[in-house]
């Protein structure tokens, strides 16, 4: 069966990033680097690898630096070129004209609202969502969204990435009520946002990667506030279960929750240990440091 291709992805980047204050007072949290690439760059690379053509950034006040980041760095490029310096580090950072769209979420009403803000740009086609502070690291060329698109090509409908975590951490996430499992696919029978401790239907959470059918926008239009008094994407998705196919996809790779300080530091450490120019130094330093 052939399904409508996934050409567009939404990156909700309007959040204030208060957990990283004061670092995020004047710099969007999405531009904090993991080694030497901003978090948002990894998410955009992941989307591009999955065949996404149009990147839609839902931004807010104080997030203008993200738009500049994906533009031409005119002064830097000219200066480096004049000095005969290599510009390889900027590869993938300039989005093609027309392939990047920036739109503002004017009020922090929740993730569901942020997605709904992009409804006219998404139009009548299925689309992806990537939450950039969830850093999903797959094998080169086979990132999380690519793995999900491959699954979508088989089953169509709606898919979320599905990840097992310790049960006591489920109150921070959207949680799946799982049905039958077949390989990497798990049927989604229900979804609940931030369940109270001890009430989660499973320890399978949604770590911020989605492929959704456009009908979700209609549901979001009238979606009531849910957990935390916010309009929740999870609630709108839950309303589609039973009317359309809905699956979880188990991702092969590593996940770093870069919305938390510990996860962010772990990502920096893990990635620097993979880099030829850094790994020997960092490994030796870490060993010395731990022995102190
Ligand atoms: C959001 C979603 C939640 C998801 C999580 C992943 O929550 O609402 O369903 O599991 O991202 O990080 P937030 O982190 O914005 O509270």
Automatic annotation (TrEMBL):
Record organism: Sphingobium naphthae
Enzyme superclass (EC): transferase
Keyword Transferase: yes
Family, as annotated: Belongs to the UDPGP type 2 family.
Molecular-function annotations in GO: nucleotidyltransferase activity
The protein's Enzyme Commission number: 2.7.7.9
Name of the protein: UTP--glucose-1-phosphate uridylyltransferase
Keywords linked to the UniProt accession: Nucleotidyltransferase, Transferase
Nucleotidyl transferase domain segment(s): 13-271
InterPro entries for the chain: GalU_uridylyltTrfase_bac/arc (IPR005771), NTP_transferase_dom (IPR005835), Nucleotide-diphossugar_trans (IPR029044)
Catalytically driven reaction(s): alpha-D-glucose 1-phosphate + UTP + H(+) = UDP-alpha-D-glucose + diphosphate
Gene3D superfamilies recorded: Spore Coat Polysaccharide Biosynthesis Protein SpsA, Chain A
Top-level taxon of the source organism: Bacteria
PANTHER family documented for this protein: UTP--GLUCOSE-1-PHOSPHATE URIDYLYLTRANSFERASE
Pfam families tied to this protein: NTP_transferase
């Amino acid at each position: 069966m052939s399904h409508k291709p996934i050409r567009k992805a939404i990156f909700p980047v309007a959040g204030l990033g208060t957990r990283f204050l004061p670092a995020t007072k004047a710099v969007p949290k999405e531009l904090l680097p993991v080694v030497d690439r901003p978090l948002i760059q990894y998410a955009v690379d992941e989307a591009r690898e999955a065949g996404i053509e149009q990147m839609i950034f839902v931004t807010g006040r104080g997030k203008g630096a993200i738009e500049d980041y994906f533009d031409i760095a005119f002064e830097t490029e000219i200066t480096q070129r004049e000095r005969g310096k290599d510009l390889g580090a900027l590869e993938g950072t300039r989005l093609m004209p027309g392939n990047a769209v920036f739109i503002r979420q004017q009020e922090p009403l929740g993730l569901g609202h942020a997605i709904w803000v992009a409804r006219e740009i998404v139009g009548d086609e299925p689309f992806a969502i990537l939450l950039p502070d969830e850093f999903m690291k797959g094998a080169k060329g086979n990132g999380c969204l690519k793995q999900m698109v491959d699954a979508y090509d088989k089953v169509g409908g709606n898919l979320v990435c599905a990840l097992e975590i310790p049960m006591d951490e489920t109150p921070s996430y959207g949680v799946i009520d799982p049905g039958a499992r077949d390989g990497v696919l798990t049927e989604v029978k229900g979804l609940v946002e931030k369940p109270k401790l001890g009430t989660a239907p499973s320890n399978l959470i949604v770590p911020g990667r989605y492929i959704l059918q456009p009908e979700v926008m209609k549901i979001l239009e009238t979606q009531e506030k849910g957990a935390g008094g916010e309009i929740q994407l999870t609630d709108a998705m839950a309303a589609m279960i039973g009317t359309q196919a809905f699956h979880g996809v188990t991702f092969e790779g590593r996940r770093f929750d870069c919305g938390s300080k510990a996860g962010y530091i772990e990502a920096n450490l893990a990635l620097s240990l993979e880099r030829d120019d850094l790994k020997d130094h960092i490994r030796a330093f870490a060993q010395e440091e731990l022995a102190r």
